[in-house]
Amino acid sequence: MSLAVDEAIPRHQPDNPFNYSKVQLATRKKALIDMKKDYPNIPDGWLEMAYDFHENKAKEEIEEIINSGKWENNGKFSKNDGGIIECGEILEPSDFSGNIS
What we know:
It is built from 4 helices and no strands. The protein has 101 residues and is an all-alpha fold.
């Protein structure tokens, strides 16, 4: 019988690491529900991280990040090995004859 990873390696995950009040937790829960509707393809953990970052940083610091464009470029650990695809062509279904050569 094999154990699930969570059973084999118990991890401590605090319920309220930022010490939000009950009202703040309710506000956070509602905001996360709304964010999930607006951004359905973003993982829940990222939405939670974004909410917590915004709530726990000074307004001036957030404005400085936005106004300076600090986060609009690749980070210092980002790899940007991409390029431009010049040989690809998108075919419409009506253009495809089914003959592959």
